[in-house]
Design a protein that fits this description.
The protein is α+β, with helices and mostly antiparallel strands. The chain is 59% helix and 10% strand.
Protein backbone atom coordinates (compact mmCIF):
# COMPACT_ATOMS: atom_id res chain seq x y z
CA UNK A 1 0.00 0.00 0.00
CA UNK A 2 3.01 2.29 -0.26
CA UNK A 3 3.86 4.63 -3.12
CA UNK A 4 7.16 6.54 -3.25
CA UNK A 5 7.52 6.05 0.53
CA UNK A 6 4.29 7.91 1.16
CA UNK A 7 1.78 6.64 3.70
CA UNK A 8 -1.59 5.90 2.14
CA UNK A 9 -4.46 7.04 4.35
CA UNK A 10 -8.00 6.09 3.41
CA UNK A 11 -10.64 8.36 4.93
CA UNK A 12 -13.96 6.58 5.40
CA UNK A 13 -16.74 9.11 5.90
CA UNK A 14 -20.43 9.70 5.30
CA UNK A 15 -22.25 12.85 4.25
CA UNK A 16 -24.55 12.44 7.29
CA UNK A 17 -21.73 12.11 9.83
CA UNK A 18 -21.34 15.17 12.08
CA UNK A 19 -18.17 13.72 13.60
CA UNK A 20 -16.70 13.32 10.10
CA UNK A 21 -17.38 17.02 9.52
CA UNK A 22 -15.42 17.77 12.69
CA UNK A 23 -12.44 15.57 11.75
CA UNK A 24 -12.15 16.69 8.12
CA UNK A 25 -10.37 20.03 8.82
CA UNK A 26 -7.90 18.20 11.05
CA UNK A 27 -7.10 15.76 8.25
CA UNK A 28 -6.61 18.70 5.89
CA UNK A 29 -4.25 20.33 8.38
CA UNK A 30 -2.20 17.12 8.57
CA UNK A 31 -1.98 16.93 4.76
CA UNK A 32 -0.92 20.56 4.58
CA UNK A 33 1.86 19.94 7.10
CA UNK A 34 3.09 16.70 5.48
CA UNK A 35 2.16 17.11 1.79
CA UNK A 36 4.99 14.96 0.49
CA UNK A 37 4.46 12.11 2.92
CA UNK A 38 0.77 11.24 2.64
CA UNK A 39 -1.55 9.97 -0.07
CA UNK A 40 -5.13 10.67 1.02
CA UNK A 41 -7.95 8.62 -0.50
CA UNK A 42 -11.57 9.47 0.28
CA UNK A 43 -13.90 6.50 0.75
CA UNK A 44 -17.67 6.26 1.07
CA UNK A 45 -19.30 4.80 4.17
CA UNK A 46 -23.09 4.61 4.54
CA UNK A 47 -24.49 5.00 8.05
CA UNK A 48 -28.02 4.84 6.62
CA UNK A 49 -27.78 3.03 3.26
CA UNK A 50 -31.51 2.85 2.47
CA UNK A 51 -34.55 5.10 2.86
CA UNK A 52 -35.85 2.88 5.66
CA UNK A 53 -32.56 2.51 7.53
CA UNK A 54 -33.26 5.21 10.11
CA UNK A 55 -36.71 3.79 10.86
CA UNK A 56 -35.21 0.35 11.39
CA UNK A 57 -32.49 1.74 13.67
CA UNK A 58 -34.54 4.20 15.74
CA UNK A 59 -38.14 3.04 15.44
CA UNK A 60 -39.48 6.05 13.55
CA UNK A 61 -38.27 8.94 11.41
CA UNK A 62 -39.07 11.46 14.15
CA UNK A 63 -37.23 9.47 16.81
CA UNK A 64 -34.27 9.12 14.46
CA UNK A 65 -34.09 12.86 13.85
CA UNK A 66 -34.28 13.75 17.54
CA UNK A 67 -31.56 11.30 18.57
CA UNK A 68 -29.32 12.26 15.64
CA UNK A 69 -29.63 15.94 16.53
CA UNK A 70 -28.29 15.14 19.98
CA UNK A 71 -25.23 13.71 18.22
CA UNK A 72 -25.06 16.94 16.24
CA UNK A 73 -25.00 18.96 19.45
CA UNK A 74 -22.25 16.81 20.93
CA UNK A 75 -20.19 17.04 17.75
CA UNK A 76 -20.67 20.81 17.66
CA UNK A 77 -19.05 21.07 21.07
CA UNK A 78 -16.03 19.27 19.60
CA UNK A 79 -15.87 21.63 16.61
CA UNK A 80 -13.81 24.77 17.33
CA UNK A 81 -15.82 26.76 14.77
CA UNK A 82 -19.22 25.42 15.97
CA UNK A 83 -20.45 24.97 12.40
CA UNK A 84 -23.14 22.37 13.19
CA UNK A 85 -26.62 23.86 13.51
CA UNK A 86 -28.94 21.38 15.23
CA UNK A 87 -31.44 24.11 16.10
CA UNK A 88 -31.91 25.04 12.44
CA UNK A 89 -32.24 21.41 11.32
CA UNK A 90 -34.85 20.86 14.01
CA UNK A 91 -37.09 23.39 12.22
CA UNK A 92 -36.84 21.67 8.84
CA UNK A 93 -39.92 19.70 7.76
CA UNK A 94 -38.31 17.32 5.25
CA UNK A 95 -37.46 13.74 6.21
CA UNK A 96 -34.00 13.38 7.67
CA UNK A 97 -31.86 12.20 4.73
CA UNK A 98 -30.26 8.82 4.19
CA UNK A 99 -26.72 8.27 2.96
CA UNK A 100 -26.83 7.00 -0.60
CA UNK A 101 -27.84 10.08 -2.65
CA UNK A 102 -25.03 12.11 -1.11
CA UNK A 103 -22.49 9.34 -1.51
CA UNK A 104 -23.51 8.82 -5.14
CA UNK A 105 -23.08 12.57 -5.64
CA UNK A 106 -19.55 12.33 -4.23
CA UNK A 107 -18.64 9.41 -6.47
CA UNK A 108 -20.04 11.25 -9.49
CA UNK A 109 -17.76 14.15 -8.57
CA UNK A 110 -14.84 11.73 -8.34
CA UNK A 111 -15.55 10.34 -11.80
CA UNK A 112 -15.27 13.84 -13.22
CA UNK A 113 -12.43 15.31 -11.18
CA UNK A 114 -10.62 12.49 -9.41
CA UNK A 115 -10.62 11.50 -5.76
CA UNK A 116 -9.81 15.03 -4.62
CA UNK A 117 -13.19 16.11 -6.03
CA UNK A 118 -14.84 13.38 -3.96
CA UNK A 119 -13.40 15.12 -0.91
CA UNK A 120 -14.50 18.56 -2.10
CA UNK A 121 -18.02 17.31 -2.76
CA UNK A 122 -18.13 15.60 0.63
CA UNK A 123 -17.12 18.86 2.31
CA UNK A 124 -19.68 20.87 0.35
CA UNK A 125 -22.49 18.41 1.07
CA UNK A 126 -21.63 18.26 4.75
CA UNK A 127 -21.78 22.05 4.91
CA UNK A 128 -25.14 21.93 3.12
CA UNK A 129 -26.41 19.27 5.52
CA UNK A 130 -24.93 20.27 8.87
CA UNK A 131 -24.53 24.05 8.60
CA UNK A 132 -27.10 25.19 6.04
CA UNK A 133 -29.49 22.35 6.93
CA UNK A 134 -30.62 21.74 3.36
CA UNK A 135 -32.16 18.51 2.13
CA UNK A 136 -29.21 16.62 0.66
CA UNK A 137 -31.57 13.96 -0.69
CA UNK A 138 -32.95 16.58 -3.09
CA UNK A 139 -31.35 16.30 -6.55
CA UNK A 140 -31.50 20.08 -7.01
CA UNK A 141 -29.53 20.65 -3.80
CA UNK A 142 -26.98 18.03 -4.85
CA UNK A 143 -26.63 19.61 -8.29
CA UNK A 144 -26.11 23.05 -6.78
CA UNK A 145 -23.37 21.66 -4.56
CA UNK A 146 -21.74 20.08 -7.61
CA UNK A 147 -21.93 23.44 -9.37
CA UNK A 148 -20.43 25.15 -6.32
CA UNK A 149 -17.27 23.04 -6.57
CA UNK A 150 -16.89 23.72 -10.29
CA UNK A 151 -18.22 20.53 -11.87
CA UNK A 152 -19.87 20.22 -15.28
CA UNK A 153 -23.44 19.73 -14.08
CA UNK A 154 -24.70 17.84 -17.11
CA UNK A 155 -21.88 15.34 -16.91
CA UNK A 156 -22.19 15.13 -13.12
CA UNK A 157 -25.92 14.36 -13.35
CA UNK A 158 -25.37 11.56 -15.88
CA UNK A 159 -22.75 9.99 -13.61
CA UNK A 160 -24.92 10.52 -10.53
CA UNK A 161 -27.75 8.54 -12.09
CA UNK A 162 -25.51 5.83 -13.59
CA UNK A 163 -25.72 2.36 -12.01
CA UNK A 164 -21.96 2.01 -12.37
CA UNK A 165 -21.55 4.87 -9.90
CA UNK A 166 -23.56 2.92 -7.35
CA UNK A 167 -21.19 0.00 -7.86
CA UNK A 168 -18.27 2.27 -6.96
CA UNK A 169 -19.98 3.25 -3.71
CA UNK A 170 -20.66 -0.41 -2.96
CA UNK A 171 -17.00 -1.21 -3.63
CA UNK A 172 -16.00 1.30 -0.93
CA UNK A 173 -18.50 -0.26 1.47
CA UNK A 174 -17.06 -3.70 0.73
CA UNK A 175 -13.57 -2.37 1.42
CA UNK A 176 -14.79 -0.98 4.75
CA UNK A 177 -16.03 -4.45 5.69
CA UNK A 178 -12.70 -5.95 4.65
CA UNK A 179 -10.91 -3.51 6.97
CA UNK A 180 -13.49 -4.09 9.74
CA UNK A 181 -14.46 -0.44 9.67
CA UNK A 182 -17.69 -0.29 11.67
CA UNK A 183 -18.04 3.42 12.37
CA UNK A 184 -17.02 6.77 10.96
CA UNK A 185 -14.93 8.78 10.82
CA UNK A 186 -12.21 6.16 10.44
CA UNK A 187 -8.82 6.57 8.82
CA UNK A 188 -7.00 3.44 7.64
CA UNK A 189 -3.27 3.73 6.94
CA UNK A 190 -1.51 1.28 4.65
CA UNK A 191 -4.56 -0.99 4.75
CA UNK A 192 -4.32 -1.84 8.45
CA UNK A 193 -3.55 0.92 10.98
CA UNK A 194 -6.74 2.69 12.15
CA UNK A 195 -7.54 6.07 13.61
CA UNK A 196 -11.15 6.12 14.80
CA UNK A 197 -13.33 9.05 15.74
CA UNK A 198 -13.06 12.83 15.75
CA UNK A 199 -10.03 12.94 17.97
CA UNK A 200 -7.90 16.06 18.40
CA UNK A 201 -5.43 17.22 15.79
CA UNK A 202 -2.63 16.48 18.26
CA UNK A 203 -3.76 12.85 18.53
CA UNK A 204 -4.01 12.61 14.76
CA UNK A 205 -0.50 13.92 14.26
CA UNK A 206 0.92 11.58 16.90
CA UNK A 207 -0.76 8.66 15.13
CA UNK A 208 0.76 9.72 11.83
CA UNK A 209 4.23 10.15 13.33
CA UNK A 210 4.03 6.68 14.85
CA UNK A 211 3.24 5.34 11.36
CA UNK A 212 6.30 7.13 10.01
CA UNK A 213 8.48 5.58 12.68
CA UNK A 214 7.18 2.10 11.88
CA UNK A 215 7.86 2.62 8.19
CA UNK A 216 11.38 3.73 8.96
CA UNK A 217 12.19 0.69 11.12
Amino acid sequence: MMNNNKIQIEFFHDVLCAWCYVLSPRVKKLIEKYPNEIILIHRAFALAPSERSLEYMFGSKDAAKQEILEHWRAANENDPEHRINAELMETRDFDYPYSMPGLLACKAAELQGGNEKFGEMMDRLQKAHLTECLNINDDEVLAQCAKDIGLDIDRWYIDYKNENTRELVLADLALARKYNVNSVPTLVANGKEKFIGAQSYESLELWFLSLKNKNND
